[in-house]
Amino acid sequence: MNLPKRYIITIVTVLAVTLFFGCESNFKEVQKINFSEFVPGSDADTVNIKYTDSGLITAVLKSRKMLDYSNLDFPFTEFPKGIDVTLYDKKQKRTFIVSNYAVSYKPTQIIDLQGKVKITSETGQMLETEQLYFDQKNEWFYTERKFKLTDAKGVSYGQGIDFSKDFKVINSQRVSGEIESDEKI
To answer: What does the DSSP assignment read for 9-30?
Structure first.
């Protein structure tokens, strides 16, 4: 049985196309095996969390959206719509923090505040910057970004600052501005 050459080419082409399309769906399945989605373990809308220690409130956190990624190897909590936090010291004096975005890294206990970050103490000191880190363990803020610090003595600008959560200790770098001084020259 001698088939014409065009029939053989047609049969081979049909078999090749069938095999090609038949294998593609399996290939996509194999690709999915190694794919893991980056999704939060939980999420919440309009949160109001109160943190306590020995019966005293140490912080109150409010946010319109919270995404919890505690299901990952390096767990963190994201606040994509910003946060409004009130910190309390042992004498219940308050420090207020507002930012457009925040991420709290659980293993390091560092909070990354971003986008129009504003911190105000109960005594009227105010710091404004675009990004600020808060070390929860040491209760210490720091940034290498530009900042504006306003207090009773005046306004100062700089790039790079670190300070305690109650503003009692402030270390700033590259500072300019007008500040009143009690020292005589």
So the answer is: HHHHHHHHHHHHHHHHHHHHHH
